[in-house]
Amino acid sequence: QVHVVESGGGLVQPGGSLRLSCAASGSIFSIRNMAWYRQPPGKQRELVAAITSGGSTNAADSVKGRFTISRDNAKNTVYLEMNSLKPEDTAVYYCYADVTYNSGSYYRRYDYWGQGTQVTVSS
Fold first, then answer.
1. Contact by Cβ (8 Å): 113, 5
2. What is the signed CA dihedral for 24, 39, 18, 58, rounded to 10 degrees?
């Protein structure tokens, strides 16, 4: 059993900052890619930023220069540092993890999602 839990969302004024965290726990053998997605009100879910186990990153053009993704492999945790927030960043933010876990007698690979955390940018 694997759990993925986000934290750190909230209400912030335009120009402000927030830091999201996402921790995976359970019978984890390894985690390949981790990422943050978001779903603005009335829109489809979109990729915000992703990071490999080796630390290579990519980010959506809309957040480049403002958001930074990082991870702590020892803690199975991924972070999203968000600066210079804009009202259009308002969304539910979801954590994603590509996990290989021990299911008993063998290993399985599965995509896990967190429950989502609300980020609201408003004055």
1. no
2. 70
